[in-house]
Design brief:
Blueprint lengths: L4 E10 L5 H12 L2 E7 L2 E8 L1 H14 L5 E10 L7 E3 L20 H7 L43 H7 L22 E3 L4 H11 L7 H19 L4 E4 L4 E5 L4 H11 L7 E3 L3 H7 L4 H8 L5 E5 L7 H4 L4 E5 L4 H10 L2 E5 L11 H11 L11 E4 L12 E5 L2 E6 L9 E2 L9 E4 L9 E4 L2 E4 L9 H17 L6 E5 L5 H13 L2 E5 L1 H13 L5 E11 L5 E10 L2 E8 L2 E4 L8 H14 L2 E3 L5 E3 L12 H9 L4 E4 L2 H11 L11 H15 L10 E6 L8 E6 L1 H12 L4 H27 L3 E5 L6 H13 L3 E4 L10 H13 L7 E2 L1
Parallel strand pairs: 2-5, 7-13, 9-11, 10-14, 17-20, 20-21, 22-31, 24-30, 31-32
Antiparallel strand pairs: 1-3, 1-4, 2-3, 6-13, 7-8, 8-12, 9-12, 10-11, 14-15, 16-19, 17-18, 18-19, 21-33, 22-23, 23-24, 25-28, 26-27, 29-30
Helix pairs in contact: 1-2, 5-6, 6-11, 15-23, 16-17, 16-18, 18-19, 19-21, 20-21, 21-22
Length: 820
């Protein structure tokens, strides 16, 4: 036929490790087409010879029928010299090509594998690591691309004849499934513990309940599962190796077990996540919206923050939180335990803020070190492991629904390393490393328009955490073949990520671009939503290094390209510094009280002042004289415009909570009190900020700014306390006052700058009441608000903002930048 032609179809997207090549081959068989398909680096190339209309129909079917986990980002079609083929072939993968690769995140167990897991007649009945082409680990086991078995941790487990037959059968759903395994070829569930003879006999009897299958096959699974169940039923804590690392596991109904877990993790108050069997079980314990249900059932299986119902889950699990972090199993082993034990706490196996443990040897060491308490009670009773290596440690992701859509709190398992597409004119030669922040750290590596956000790596407050950070930068760079030509970091000179960026730039002879912390927050929203024109950035958080050396955190910025201008902020408050000040909310309250008791006027400009009331009383607290003396003599003080510290101060001042036992606890307790007021139908206390336009005399530069004072907020709170007004009304009034202040300042900026697009970001905007109230107010006056969705509004998202500023620097869209 004269109109036949040969074309190359190049596909970018999540097309490796999701059964894409087998799908293409089956589709070609159905269309009776001739050609070949292969992985090249991180892409898929299809070469076909046929008529143009049949090729067009094939491509349309490719888009419409692709495997569920697959994502097609871009397709490029190129006509080649006519070639003849005999049938359709899957070629061996090619390591070449330097295009942006896309590896799928780890995929949760699919319905077909779950059915086989529970089918006594199936050869993979109760196989803890059952998987197929559309489910199972991906990113956590890969060594290099292309994603083939020999390039993953599965290379240590040669396939048995049964698995190999399925792997090579084009019509089988395990055709080219790189993680295929069974009871005979592993990995196998193993365990380490010490137990009395009676316990062993009891475990054996539990293991035989409902087991009717072949004993030789089942004993490999039954014994360790029986031991795990026995420990959990006896109020003990076990360590269980998952996909991205170890979890500590115990019953959420056993108070002593949860207390033991808290001692083990050195975690006094922060809530634990609970894994449930299915949506029906979650609905017994939590309120679930349609959007939250979709998140829970998604392939990523993230932890979703849900409002809890009254239940028999013990208070020790959630403490003072009104939420439960709920999630569903993502692997067969988890289903097997929950089917017998019911809901289970599954929390990252780490101590305090250390990284999650992924290696067996490290867990065995911990088991030896933490095994027995002084009273003779076992703290960690058993370790359940397997010999498949975890290449990359990943915590569970955490998501919540705000404004009717998902918002990432912690981006990790199920999402990393899927890249975000950032609209720009960069080519694949343009590569950037953005090192992120110090807390809730993550970094970003980009190639052309694709930004790969690393998994959540935690706080970089130990050498071990820093080492893991370095390892992950090197590993991701190698995996995605990225050789940065620009390094971007925060401004803070003491951040480890800033120092690392400086060293990296010096070692590789690269430019080092520094981006102010709150500018990066705003830029992260701009990157997610492709905001090309100037925006009003509202960036509220706990701390960030300002261009003047002060601590910022209550900022209104105008951002465009690589440039930002600070057009408004909370007025500076002299606060006691030091590491403890972040935890001691009462210090923030006293610092505000000291400032406003000594402030007689708020200067608007050089000629005009605004008189302010001054009826705040000196607190009757034994700690006050020490704080006052420190502030009087400027001992370890800092200037701060932080909204996060204001939330802490109001929580303490209103008598709600005055100590952060975990990050943000005071602010969370303040939000809880506001939520309680809403639930009880209480009216918010009428409160408002002072907002003035003028020269900021605290700055050396003579720019005119909008200054925001919280002095009247404290006066209203003081009066309300004296009158015995419900503290929930104070909390709700404060939330509404902050939202009203945002609206008013945005009005002033729109009047002077002509802008209506607003980016809301920073850790403070994890507050659901504040966020939704602010969005409603802004929309009511025809502003166009945007916020973080795919990355967290907390510091875990700033690497994306840094990356965007770096991209715009490389494309020449630059104004004021700090280059070394």
């Amino acid at each position: 036929m004269s109109d036949r032609k040969t074309v190359k179809i190049k596909i970018w997207g999540i097309v490796q490790g999701v059964g894409f090549r087998p799908f293409v081959a089956k589709l070609a068989d159905r269309f009776q087409m001739q050609g070949e398909v292969l992985n090249i680096g991180g892409l898929v190339d299809i070469i076909l010879t046929d008529t143009p209309d049949r090729i067009e129909r094939f491509i349309e079917a490719l888009k419409q029928e692709k495997p569920l986990p697959a994502e097609i980002v871009h397709i490029k079609i190129e006509e080649l010299e006519l070639r003849e083929f005999s049938g359709f072939t899957i070629l061996d993968s090619d390591e070449g090509d330097d295009e942006a690769a896309m590896i799928p995140a780890d995929l949760s167990i699919c319905p077909d594998c779950l059915a086989e897991l529970q089918d006594e007649k199936n050869p993979r009945y109760l196989h803890p690591f059952i998987s197929c082409m559309v489910c199972g680990p991906r990113y956590t086991i890969i060594d290099k691309i292309p994603y083939d078995r020999e390039n993953t941790a599965m290379i240590d487990f040669p396939m048995c004849d049964f698995c190999h037959e399925e792997y090579t059968d084009r019509n089988d759903r395990r055709y080219h499934a790189q993680t295929v395994s069974c009871h005979d070829c592993g990995p196998m569930l193993e365990f380490r513990l010490t137990g009395e003879k009676e316990e062993r006999q009891e475990a054996a009897s539990i293991g035989m309940i409902g087991i009717q299958a072949n004993q030789k096959t089942m004993e490999k699974v039954v014994t360790p599962i029986a031991w795990a169940v026995l420990q959990l039923l006896k109020e003990k804590v076990i360590a269980l190796k998952g996909v991205g690392g170890y979890n500590f596991v115990c019953s959420p109904f056993k108070e002593q077990a949860v207390k033991k877990l808290r001692r083990l993790k050195i975690r006094e108050e922060k809530p634990f996540a609970v894994m449930f069997r299915d949506m029906e079980q979650i609905s017994e314990y939590c309120h679930v919206s349609r959007e939250e249900e979709e998140l829970l059932l998604s392939n990523a299986k993230p932890i979703v923050l849900l409002e809890r119902k009254p239940s028999d889950i013990c208070r020790e699990v959630y403490k003072t939180s009104r939420y439960i972090g709920a999630f569903l199993p993502s692997m067969g082993l988890q289903f097997m335990l929950i089917d017998i034990c019911g809901p289970l706490i599954m929390t990252s196996a780490n101590l305090s803020d250390m990284p999650i443990i992924k290696d067996d040897e490290e867990m065995f060491e911990l088991q030896e070190k933490m095994d027995w308490e002084p009273d003779g009670e076992k703290l960690l009773s058993a370790v359940f492991y397997n010999e498949r290596k975890i290449r990359i440690r990943l915590d569970d992701s955490v998501v919540r629904v705000i404004d009717g859509q998902p918002q990432m709190i912690r981006r990790s398992k199920g999402y990393a390393p899927v890249p975000l597409y950032i609209n720009n004119k960069l080519t694949k030669q343009d590569m950037i490393l953005a090192t992120g922040g110090q807390l809730k750290s993550s970094f970003s590596l980009s190639k052309g328009p694709f930004a790969y956000i690393s998994q959540y790596l935690g706080d970089l407050d130990s050498r071990e955490a820093e080492r893991i950070y370095e390892e992950n930068v090197a590993r991701m760079s190698e995996l995605f073949r990225i050789q940065p030509k620009l390094v971007v970091s925060d401004l803070h000179p003491l951040y480890y990520t800033t120092k690392y960026a400086q060293q990296y730039a010096e070692q590789h002879g690269l430019e080092h671009l520094k981006v102010q912390h709150h500018h990066a927050h705003v830029a992260s929203v701009m990157a997610e939503h492709d905001l090309q024109t100037p925006v009003i950035g509202v960036s509220f958080d706990g701390t960030g290094y300002g261009t003047d050396g002060a601590i910022w955190g209550g900022e209104f910025l105008v951002c465009q390209g690589t440039d930002f201008r600070r057009v408004g902020h909370l007025e500076y408050i002299k606060m006691l510094g030091g590491d403890s000040s972040m935890k001691e909310g009462w210090k923030s309250a006293f610092s505000y009280l000291y400032h406003y008791r000594n402030q007689q006027e708020l200067r608007i400009n050089e000629d005009q002042v605004q008189a302010t009331q001054n009826n705040l009383k000196e607190p009757e607290d034994s700690r006050w004289p020490t704080v006052k003396a420190g502030l009087d003599h400027n001992i370890n003080t800092i200037n701060s415009s932080s909204m996060g510290r204001l939330f802490d101060g109001i929580a303490a001042f209103a008598g709600i909570h005055d100590w952060n036992r975990y990050e943000g606890e005071c602010a969370i307790m303040l939000e809880n009190a506001a939520a309680e007021a809403i639930e009880e139908g209480l009216e918010p206390l009428d409160m408002a900020f002072d907002i003035v336009e003028g020269k900021d005399i605290a700055e050396s530069e003579a720019s005119r700014r909008i200054l925001i004072s919280a002095k009247p907020i404290f006066h209203h709170a003081e009066e309300a306390r004296r009158e015995g007004i419900h503290r929930g009304r104070i909390a709700l009034g404060f939330h509404y006052a902050v939202a009203n202040m945002i609206l008013e300042v945005c009005r002033l900026i729109r009047k002077s700058e002509g802008l209506s697009t607003v980016a809301l970001t920073g850790g403070v905007f994890q507050n659901k009441i504040l966020m939704e109230r602010t969005l409603a107010l802004l929309r009511s006056e025809n502003f166009h608000p945007y916020y973080n969705v795919s990355v967290g509004p907390n510091d875990g998202g700033i690497c994306l903002g840094q990356n965007l500023v770096g991209m715009r620097y490389l494309t020449g869209i630059q104004h004021n930048v700090n280059i070394e």
